[in-house]
């Protein structure tokens, strides 16, 4: 996406047709960019700059390589429209199809004020705290544009917001475990976006010395990875991880599995020498990007599972790969206390597992197929082969069924408790337990300024309605508070949901924005003068594993307004169950962790 206006002859026309800053122009290291004037939820003016390139297009020979800085331009770059998504197939939506472009490394800047020296109504306003959001999508899909991440709520809180694309799936995370394709290209794209922020954000009215990175799901795991990676630790100051960390099963590096995937990928698209990594990469560079992404279908073993085929990789530092993103497993970095010590908010939603359970329960054809071979399919869907020695899998699965499903061998739609148990099982395996592990381990290792939350507010709309990908219903099925639901109260999402009109939902928007933007401004979600205090995790919590957290609950019903209460011992029985299973990724007892 390259849109320019000739600088000399056209600039006069632009300015003469614009009233005040309706067409704001800002200087970046690469050249001038022109944005638009827009309006926040409360009708306040802000300035939007959409689709600014922060790297060269990763196409041709730049496929499977780290991002490169963009070329400079001499004309005014028109940053007025959303850029293309990164090439992907979003299996979470109905009727998934390949969409987007490989030429996708663009970012968006939204700001209530532009640098005073640039403004015609120049004032002495202080630079704004900067919030950089990393989008969701399991490293295989996701969007950064204003149709999915509308900035209007944030613009009422006087912060500067940045969103951006990064490479996804095979194009973003293909790894051969050697110099041919070390991997982590999507994460390195994120690093380059953060570098761009450091170099340019002051001209947009932002404070480069007060940068908060925050993300959801894969974006939340990315935040955690940036806390660990030497490439990015110095590019931000604090973070928020919503429903994901680097310890999530789908986010942890697995070199053995990655090697198998690389061979399988090469075989699927017909590369002649699938075990020769150099030849494989040369072959894959020549395959049409859409065909490469579409080939992800071949990795599915049941319905759209496994969702995550590609993800972060452990790299080797070599002459050809001098700047690896990570060279050790995340647990090793935490054990050695090699992590960003800045403030960190981390938390989960109450029914994270609705991301998959909603579809598996509500789609009758899928549910019937699952029930016909329940045990064998579920052992696969739970990814037990990644965590447990093969011979132990049946015994461990039997324990999981007993704990969550009352020992059942199918999804019984007439039993509320097994339906809820099925969702809880997915919640804990895919999200909640690993978030708990990461928070507890960081706390034990002396990470002082940490806050934990559980989001349990049930609004008028839910992402579970999206994840179900069907209009079929099941009597008595409890929707709950799904993976991604907190995003409804941070961003406007016109691509998926109507504008929020429910009074309680609006209260939740204001409360969530206050917590997140207070944190961006002060490093504390509830500064000293706040009426309610969100207490930090305490080092005393680690030995008992009974840490305190903020419970955010209520509903859109008039009788259940939003509430924020401190509690302790979140899901303690469920997490203790997983701690006692023979999982490879389980962290040793904390008294042995160092």
Task: Provide a descriptive summary of the structure in words.
- With 594 residues, the protein is α/β, with parallel strands linked by helices.
- The protein is 31% helix and 16% strand.
- A hairpin with a 2-residue loop joins strand 2 and strand 3 (31-34).
- The protein starts with a strand and ends in a 15-residue tail after the last helix.
Question: What key attributes describe this structure?
Answer:
Rossmann fold, four-stranded mixed β-sheet, 17 strands, alpha/beta, 2 domains, 594 residues, 18 helices, eleven-stranded mixed β-sheet
Task: List the topology elements.
Blueprint: E1 4-5, H1 7-17, E2 25-28, E3 31-34, E4 36-39, E5 45-53, E6 76-78, E7 88-89, E8 98-99, E9 106-111, E10 128-134, H2 152-155, E11 160-164, H3 169-173, H4 185-200, E12 206-216, H5 218-228, E13 238-242, H6 255-268, H7 277-286, H8 289-294, H9 330-335, E14 344-349, H10 354-362, H11 364-372, H12 374-381, H13 393-405, H14 416-444, E15 450-458, H15 464-467, H16 503-522, H17 541-544, E16 548-555, E17 563-568, H18 572-579
Parallel strand pairs: 3-6, 10-11, 10-12, 12-13, 13-14, 14-15, 15-16
Antiparallel strand pairs: 1-6, 2-3, 4-5, 5-9, 7-8, 9-11, 16-17
Question: What is the structure about, briefly put?
Answer:
This protein is of the alpha/beta class. The chain has 18 helices and 17 strands. Helix content is 31%, strand content 16%.
Fraction of residues in H or I helices: 25-40%
Q: For this structure, what is the CATH class of the largest domain?
A: Alpha Beta
Number of helices: 18
Q: Specify the CATH architecture of the largest domain.
A: 3-Layer(aba) Sandwich
- Average pLDDT number: 93
Whole-angstrom Rg:
24 Å
| Largest sheet descriptor | 11 strands, mixed
CATH superfamily of the largest domain: Alpha/Beta hydrolase fold, catalytic domain
The main sheet orders its strands as: 4-5-9-11-10-12-13-14-15-16-17
Taken together, the total number of domains comes to: 2
CATH topology of the largest domain: Rossmann fold
What is the total tally of β strands? Answer: 17
| Percentage beta strand | 15-25%
Q: End-to-end distance, in Å?
A: 49 Å
Looking at the structure, what is the overall shape?
globular
* Residue runs with pLDDT of under 50 for 5 or more positions: 4-17, 117-123
Alpha-beta classification: alpha/beta
GO molecular function, one term: carboxylic ester hydrolase activity
Pfam family, one: COesterase
Protein name: Carboxylic ester hydrolase
Organism: Acanthoscelides obtectus (Bean weevil)
């Amino acid at each position: 996406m390259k849109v320019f206006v000739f600088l000399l002859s056209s600039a006069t026309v632009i300015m003469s047709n614009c009233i005040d800053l309706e067409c704001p122009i800002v200087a970046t290291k690469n050249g001038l960019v022109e944005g638009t004037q827009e309006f926040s939820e409360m009708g306040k003016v802000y300035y939007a700059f959409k689709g600014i390139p922060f790297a060269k297009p990763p196409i041709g020979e730049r496929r499977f390589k780290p991002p490169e800085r963009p070329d400079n331009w001499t004309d005014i770059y028109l940053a007025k429209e959303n850029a293309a998504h990164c090439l992907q197939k979003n299996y979470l939506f109905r009727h998934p199809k390949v969409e987007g472009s490989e030429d996708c490394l663009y970012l968006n800047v939204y700001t209530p004020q532009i640098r005073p020296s640039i403004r015609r109504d120049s004032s002495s306003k202080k630079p704004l705290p900067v919030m950089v959001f990393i989008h969701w999508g399991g490293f295989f899909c996701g969007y950064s544009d204003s149709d999915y991440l509308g900035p209007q709520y944030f613009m009422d809180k006087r912060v500067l917001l940045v969103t951006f694309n990064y490479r996804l799936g095979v194009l973003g995370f293909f790894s051969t475990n050697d110099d041919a394709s070390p991997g982590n290209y999507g994460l390195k794209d994120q690093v380059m976006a953060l570098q761009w922020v450091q170099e340019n954000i002051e001209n947009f009215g932002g404070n480069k010395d007060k940068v908060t990175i925050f993300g959801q799901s894969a974006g939340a795991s990315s935040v955690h990875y940036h806390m660990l990676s030497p490439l990015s630790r110095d590019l931000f100051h604090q973070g928020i991880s919503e429903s994901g960390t680097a310890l999530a099963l789908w986010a942890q590096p697995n070199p053995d599995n990655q090697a198998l995937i690389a061979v399988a990928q090469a075989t699927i698209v017909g590369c002649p020498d699938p075990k020769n990594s150099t030849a494989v990469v040369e072959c894959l560079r020549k395959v049409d990007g859409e065909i490469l992404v579409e080939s992800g279908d071949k990795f599915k073993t049941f319905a759209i599972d496994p969702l995550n085929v590609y993800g972060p990789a452990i790299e080797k530092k070599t002459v050809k790969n001098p700047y690896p993103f990570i060279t050790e497993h995340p647990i090793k970095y935490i054990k050695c206390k090699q992590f960003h010590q800045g403030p960190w908010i981390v938390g989960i939603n109450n029914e994270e597992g609705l991301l998959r359970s909603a579809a598996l329960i509500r789609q009758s054809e899928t549910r019937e197929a699952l029930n016909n071979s329940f045990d064998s399919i579920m052992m696969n869907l739970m990814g037990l082969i990644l965590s447990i020695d093969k011979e132990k899998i049946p015994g461990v699965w039997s324990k999981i069924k007993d704990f969550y499903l009352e020992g059942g061998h199918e999804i019984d739609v007439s039993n509320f408790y097994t339906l809820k148990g099925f969702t809880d099982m997915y919640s804990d395996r895919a999200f909640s337990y690993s978030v708990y592990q990461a928070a507890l381990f960081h706390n034990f290792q002396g990470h002082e300024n940490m806050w934990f939350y559980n989001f349990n507010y049930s609004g008028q709309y839910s992402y579970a309605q999206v994840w179900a990908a069907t209009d079929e219903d099941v009597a008595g099925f409890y929707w709950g508070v799904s993976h991604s639901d907190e995003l409804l109260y941070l961003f406007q999402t016109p691509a998926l949901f109507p504008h929020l009109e429910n009074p309680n939902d609006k209260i939740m928007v204001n409360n969530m924005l206050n917590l997140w933007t207070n944190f961006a401004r002060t490093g504390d979600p509830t500064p000293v003068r706040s009426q309610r205090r969100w207490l930090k995790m305490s080092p005393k919590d680690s030995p008992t594993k009974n840490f305190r957290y903020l419970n955010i609950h209520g509903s859109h019903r008039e009788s259940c307004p939003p509430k924020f209460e401190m509690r302790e011992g979140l899901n303690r029985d469920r997490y203790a169950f997983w701690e006692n299973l023979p999982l490879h990724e389980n962290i040793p007892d904390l008294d042995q962790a160092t």
